[in-house]
Amino acid sequence: MSDHVYKTVELTGSSATGTDDAIKKAVARAAKTIRNMQWFKVDEVRGQVANGKVAYWQVTVKVGFTMEA
Amino acid sequence: MSDHVYKTVELTGSSATGTDDAIKKAVARAAKTIRNMQWFKVDEVRGQVANGKVAYWQVTVKVGFTMEA
Amino acid sequence: MSDHVYKTVELTGSSATGTDDAIKKAVARAAKTIRNMQWFKVDEVRGQVANGKVAYWQVTVKVGFTMEA
Amino acid sequence: MSDHVYKTVELTGSSATGTDDAIKKAVARAAKTIRNMQWFKVDEVRGQVANGKVAYWQVTVKVGFTMEA
Amino acid sequence: MSDHVYKTVELTGSSATGTDDAIKKAVARAAKTIRNMQWFKVDEVRGQVANGKVAYWQVTVKVGFTMEA
Amino acid sequence: MSDHVYKTVELTGSSATGTDDAIKKAVARAAKTIRNMQWFKVDEVRGQVANGKVAYWQVTVKVGFTMEA
Amino acid sequence: MSDHVYKTVELTGSSATGTDDAIKKAVARAAKTIRNMQWFKVDEVRGQVANGKVAYWQVTVKVGFTMEA
Amino acid sequence: MSDHVYKTVELTGSSATGTDDAIKKAVARAAKTIRNMQWFKVDEVRGQVANGKVAYWQVTVKVGFTMEA
Amino acid sequence: MSDHVYKTVELTGSSATGTDDAIKKAVARAAKTIRNMQWFKVDEVRGQVANGKVAYWQVTVKVGFTMEA
Amino acid sequence: MSDHVYKTVELTGSSATGTDDAIKKAVARAAKTIRNMQWFKVDEVRGQVANGKVAYWQVTVKVGFTMEA
Amino acid sequence: MSDHVYKTVELTGSSATGTDDAIKKAVARAAKTIRNMQWFKVDEVRGQVANGKVAYWQVTVKVGFTMEA
Amino acid sequence: MSDHVYKTVELTGSSATGTDDAIKKAVARAAKTIRNMQWFKVDEVRGQVANGKVAYWQVTVKVGFTMEA
């Protein structure tokens, strides 16, 4: 544990459903190319409005993963 | 696009259901008097507790809309 | 009203379901020992990732309650 | 309660007397045109100096009020 | 001086030229409806990229003006 | 001195008189159960408005006290 | 006006009376050696507690003054 | 894991040796009364100066521990 | 739109001309290896001084681009 | 290099031309009395509005210089 | 100098020894794949506690390196 | 005590050894010209990297000292 080095990347996921789903989508997309993801941290929640309604959420997360030794 | 000027207003929506619903309610109320809303950004998430349970969420958002030329 | 003094404690709730449920769990646990809780304020939303998916959310809230006179 | 939507405006009051009086003046001026004000939050305290003395305080507050349904 | 109350509005100006021009455009647009503007404060500088080049700047400013007594 | 460990608690005092009095009330209430308080730090100044006037101030302070060895 | 350069210094004033008086004392002391002070901005409000009561306030301000050409 | 609720307390440790030792002392003191501490997070590093030298460091940490179910 | 995931990278551009040119240079360099850049956000403006004059500006921007599905 | 101690001063430059020119003016004025300036960092960009137009920019910078051994 | 573009990556190093060693480990690991690293900046210091003692430190740094032209 | 006015200066110390030593160097250099230093507060920890290793730490501290009456 105490020997690990982690790297963080910043991603923004979008969802027409809500905040939590936008996070899931960002993590799922990252999983295609990043192994050993460990945690995420929400940095910003924003979204788009269309016709007077919330069209979709955009959540920016920092995602941390273990760098292989 | 590059000629637009946007104005931002700050609103707080409430909901007994959750964070996303409180945002929807703030945007829906704003839509009664503001046209051309484009985006929102969450500034603060708080809420009220009653009888040891979350009674409702209160989400403060900044909402941006296009000023007409 | 204007005579009350409030105290705030900082708690982190976890949930495999989402942000709002993590808040509910933190408040519910606090209710076992704290009376007269009045409000909460979200300080940080983070979570754990396992096998390329969000495993659970961890939401840190400040919870305020009335100190008895 | 949980159905209300609030709007926030940002005001700066001035006073030769002190911080609290500058807040009172900002709220009193807002009361001429805004109904149903509920709360204020101090954002910045600054002031002007003249002849080596504090000439007046300038306090910026956010003031929240209920939007009528 | 010490009797004035100021109000602040938040605007975002856009410009294909640069940061300073985006501020000028936000202030010019505001001048159509707001009298007695006194100062501005830059809150955020961002912009759009198209075809690998900066397409335009978007500068968010808070603009303060004297409320008439 | 250099051996002490301090603990901090967060309190909100209320006062119909003003900012300083709200701090005094928070400290006075804390003194009923906490010994050896050493310092306070203001975190937030807000308040309630009623009938277009400031009804009372609410000041949140962090209060530090020496933990007994 | 537009040719001036200002310098800012950071000072902490103390007072057994309250926040506003601590600011006045910091400015008064600065006036002994600094000419042409123009403004102040509050950065931090803290204080000392003794015998379960506020003993004095300590207010940190930034003070700006015109540099002579 | 996902069922746990954590509580955070804020402590300040002091040390004539340095930053890391001040953290160790805060954690060691907390261990006398708190079980199941899991993590710490540094909030502020400051210290006292005497005779023109650093006399001791004061490090404020937030320490999180598992609340028992 | 609502299906996209964006990634953000942090870059610092330098320019002897000014702030806006430093941003352009950071974006132009990034365009050599990153496709589908959408926006930038300024995080910090600093620079080097030589012989009592500004030698060049250094502007740190976050640049967001669409991750391909 | 690793032996140097730097000092920072905070200055505000003004310009009717724009942000970059305001920085140049602050640095040029400082060069009259400070030797060995090394860097600057922008802290705040604000300005004055007159007759519905930007009258001048005011940019606050921190300027660092080497203290002579 | 003024032509360079820098990129920043965010890393977290761990160490059972202390803060400085955790930084060294993050930089050493990064050196395996990144050339021309120039500087680092500490963003967060936290750590794990086990059996009432600090088990290891985790320091998050931003590391900047020159992008090759 | 409650009559004192303090002034704060901002310094950056460098050290090839580590964070704590950089603070000591900044304070030691300041002691050559400033009397009655009382405290310091760390504002930023950064450093230089050379050949893939930490070359030296640079710690920015605010140092407070009593102004003589």
Query: In DSSP terms, counting alpha (H) and pi (I) runs of 4 or more, how many helices of chain A?
Result: 1
Give the helix/strand class of chain A.
alpha+beta
Query: Under the CATH scheme, which class of chain A?
Result: Alpha Beta
Q: How many domains of chain A?
A: 1
> Would you identify the CATH architecture of chain A?
2-Layer Sandwich
Unreliable parts of chain A: none
CATH fold naming of chain A = Dodecin subunit-like
Largest interface: B-D, 16 and 13 residues
Structural features, described:
- The structure is a homododecamer of 69-residue chains.
- By secondary structure, chain A is α+β, with helices and mostly antiparallel strands.
- Chain A contains one helix and three strands.
- The first copy, chain A, has a three-stranded antiparallel β-sheet with strand order 1-3-2.
- In chain A, a hairpin with a 2-residue loop joins β2 and β3 (53-66).
- The B-D interface holds B 9-16, 25-26, 29-30, 48, 55-56, 60 and D 1-9, 62, 64, 67, 69.
- β2 of chain H pairs antiparallel with β2 (37-50) of chain K.
What is the element layout, followed by pairings?
12 copies of one chain form a homododecamer.
Chain A: E1 5-15, H1 19-30, E2 37-50, E3 53-66
